[in-house]
Amino acid sequence: MGYRVAVVGATGNVGREMMQILSEREFPADEVAAVASSRSVGSEVEYGDTGRMLRCQNLEHFDFAGWDMALFAAGSAVSRDHVPRAAAAGCVVIDNSSLYRMDPDVPLIVPEVNPEAIDGYTARRIIANPNCSTAQLVVALKPLHDAATIRRVVVSTYQSVSGAGKAGMDELFEQSRAIFVGDPVEPRTFTRQIAFNLIPHIDSFLDDGSTKEEWKMVVETKKILDPRIKLTATCVRVPVFVGHSEAVNIEFERELSAREAQDILREAPGIMLIDKREDGGYVTPVEAAGDSATYISRVRDDPTVEHGISLWCVSDNLRKGAALNAVQIAELLGRRHLKKG
């Protein structure tokens, strides 16, 4: 006996990736519903690579009663209107938007990092999926924090345009083509030209000069991992289609050498260490795209602090940063609370 699972936002980048991952991981679903806005009703999305096509149902009229889980990938506005309705119907919601992440009654989960926190889902029947850049960061930080206790983190992100959805990917493609043929370039999704450029601005600006994306990394890392960790972030959009990269500097309370950190990361769940000190001995977004691992490279000692290392972290933001993490939460929920059969 399996689960009944609804995927809300099934026609978007993350929703389609959720369908793919549910299928490839053979999630025990007896029934999967593709749910989307009224403009997508009647269109079809493929369930993984199975050739099985699911006809989209209208979110406005979808009845969540009798469904075990709903994976939401449709943005905060949609979540605000429909997540409470789904939860009230008895369906457990795993929400990919930022709406509920800092709600004290909603667990914010990365299964490799804080699986026990999922037990708090009963307060509202809602579980939050973290920001894509936070998810890969805390997977890398967790085993190192356990070993030597992290005091401070400085992270610079290099985030792909897929983090801004299909519109962001289309804009990079269209601008690149326009530049090659000599046509004018007009930014629409981004504030500046993204092709052959980078933009040190993701989400809205806050009063202290940081952006909301940077704020998310700070507060989400504290909630998921440890509220005592000090973190500062600079988040940058780069002309890469898929895959977020991060340059991370970590200061510890106790001594931890780069060699020891490599040994720890090599055995850590969800991590693939590719770290050869030679040309090409590291991972870039091109290699990470389509993969489920969080890749770590360039681990080295930081001589500017008493106990510090630096590292390079790359992951497919549509997978670990969103869809894969949501499915892993669903698997964890099933194992710990909603057992079937």
Secondary structure elements and pairings:
Elements: E1 3-8, H1 13-24, E2 29-36, E3 44-46, E4 53-55, E5 57-58, E6 69-72, H2 76-88, E7 92-95, E8 126-128, H3 132-148, E9 150-159, H4 165-181, H5 212-224, E10 230-237, E11 244-252, H6 258-267, E12 271-273, H7 285-288, E13 294-301, E14 308-315, H8 319-336
Helix pairs in contact: 1-8, 3-5, 3-8
Describe the structure in brief.
With 341 residues, the protein is an alpha/beta fold. It has helices spanning 13-24, 76-88, 132-148, 165-181, 212-224, 258-267, 285-288, 319-336, and strands at 3-8, 29-36, 44-46, 53-55, 57-58, 69-72, 92-95, 126-128, 150-159, 230-237, 244-252, 271-273, 294-301, 308-315. It folds into two domains: 3-130 and 322-336, NAD(P)-binding Rossmann-like Domain (Rossmann fold, 3-Layer(aba) Sandwich), CATH 3.40.50; 133-317, Dihydrodipicolinate Reductase, domain 2, CATH 3.30.360.
